[in-house]
Structure formats: C-alpha cells, structure tokens
C-alpha cells in the first residue's frame, strides 16, 4: 500500500509541473526582432594658439602660403599677435631746396617656392584667441627722422595711402580700416580695429596693390629744411591691444 502511494504522488507532481510549463506564453523566451538604438558621443576641444603666425602674401593671403619678407623681423607670440610690419625705405635722394615728395620702395619677399617678388608694404595681425572679443591696432612714429648725430629732418611727414584690408577670414567687418593715414611723430594713430563679435583670424592692412605698391607711401620733406649728406632714420612702434573698437 505504501509503494502505490509513492507512485501516485510522483505522478501527480510530474503532471503538475508539466501543466505549469504548458501554460507559459510562447513569446516569453522569443527575442524581439525590432530596431535597436544606441547613442555614442563625439567631441572636439579648441584652445588658443600661441605659436607665431607666418607673414602671408599681401596680394593673395587666401592662398595661405607663408612668405619670407626681405626685411623680416620675428613677430610676436600668439594668440593675439602682430605677425609682421614692413620697414620703409625711401631710397637715396639728392639734396634739394625745393619741397619734395619721396615714395617708399615696395616690399620684397620670397614666396613659398623661393621666387623673388615685390608687393605692397603692409602690417599683419592674427587673433587666435577663440573669443571674438575684438582688438585695436595702432602705430606710432617714435620720433622725427634724425641722423646718428641727432640732426633732425624738420617738418618731414609720412603719409600712408591706398590702405585696404585683406584677410583669410570671411569677416571683413572691421570698424577701423582707414584708406589714408597721416603720421605725426610721437602720436599714435589707429590702423585697424575690430569690435566685439568680430576680428577672428588673420588680417592684413596693405598700402597699395601690385600696380601701386611703389607709390602708396610718401615722405614729404620741406625745401627749407636743412639736409645733411647723411642717413636719416626713425622707428615705428606697432601696438595691438585687446581693447575692442567701439561700435
């Protein structure tokens, strides 16, 4: 009797387990065939560039090819930098008692292939700060032309003509870009300026183009000024500040 009860209990348990399995929904163990989405990330971080920017060709700066000016001095470091400014050579002139106007020679340089070229005198700046905070560029003739013996070329005056801005940037909305600049020794004058929201990239103020490069910067000397048979020199200080030009 005990043996039969054991068989009955086992049979009933087996039957119950089978019944439990049979009532589970068929889809419980099936994998869905619908589309799956997953999101991944991508990023890039920019930082100000402090390396000096090479001078670019004043005729076609959009080419991006650096040049080697014949009178090149090292530019300032970035990210807001003065990359280059031409030195001016008015040549060797005959002494005269008449008012005279002398023209600066064009800039000489080598292009990226080493070819000798001439072009307009210029000044180049670069803003790689990544802020578009604006800036102002000024120039000052530090003093009158003088000899090594401190003899002054009284009344001499430099005028920059045919000024125009060219840039590697699409933003040419500078607030300061005078076509003509008349220098007064000892006084700073504005050359270029960008307001807040503008001025990122490299900008060149060139005086003249390929046809007027040798006739755009003038030195006028009064006839009554004493002139010694010596070399007269002056210097220019170019100042680039983070002060944006006001609208």
From TrEMBL:
Domain WxL intervals: 35-244
Q: Where is the signal peptide?
A: 1-30
User: Is this entry keyworded Oxidoreductase?
Assistant: no
Q: Where is this region: Disordered?
A: 48-83, 95-128
Q: Where is the composition biased (Low complexity)?
A: 57-70
Q: Does the keyword field hold Signal?
A: yes
Keywords from UniProt, A to Z, are: Plasmid, Signal
| Coiled coil start-end | none
| Protein name per its UniProtKB record | WxL domain-containing protein
Q: Which organism is it from?
A: Melissococcus plutonius
Taxonomy, top ranks, is:
Bacteria, Bacillati, Bacillota, Bacilli, Lactobacillales
């Amino acid at each position: 009797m005990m043996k039969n009860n054991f068989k009955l209990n086992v049979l009933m348990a087996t039957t119950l387990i089978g019944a439990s399995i049979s009532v589970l929904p068929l889809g419980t163990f099936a994998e869905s065939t619908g589309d799956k989405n997953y999101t991944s990330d991508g990023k890039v971080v920019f930082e100000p560039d402090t390396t000096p920017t090479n001078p670019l060709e004043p005729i076609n700066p959009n080419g991006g090819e650096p040049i080697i000016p014949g009178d090149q001095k090292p530019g300032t470091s970035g990210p807001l930098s003065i990359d280059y400014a031409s030195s001016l050579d008015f040549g060797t002139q005959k002494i005269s008692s008449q008012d005279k106007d002398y023209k600066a020679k064009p800039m000489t340089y080598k292009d990226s292939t080493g070819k000798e070229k001439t072009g307009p005198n210029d000044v180049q700046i670069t803003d790689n700060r990544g802020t578009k905070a604006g800036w102002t560029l000024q120039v000052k003739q530090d003093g009158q032309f003088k000899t090594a013996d401190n003899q002054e070329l009284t009344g001499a005056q430099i005028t920059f003509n045919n000024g125009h801005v060219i840039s590697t940037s699409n933003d040419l909305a500078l607030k300061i870009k005078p076509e003509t600049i008349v220098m007064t020794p000892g006084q700073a004058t504005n050359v270029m300026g960008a307001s807040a929201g503008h001025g990122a990239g490299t900008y060149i103020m060139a005086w003249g183009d390929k046809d007027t490069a040798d006739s755009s910067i003038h030195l006028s000397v009064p006839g009554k000024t004493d002139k010694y048979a010596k070399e007269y020199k002056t210097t220019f200080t170019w100042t680039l500040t983070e002060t944006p030009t006001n609208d």
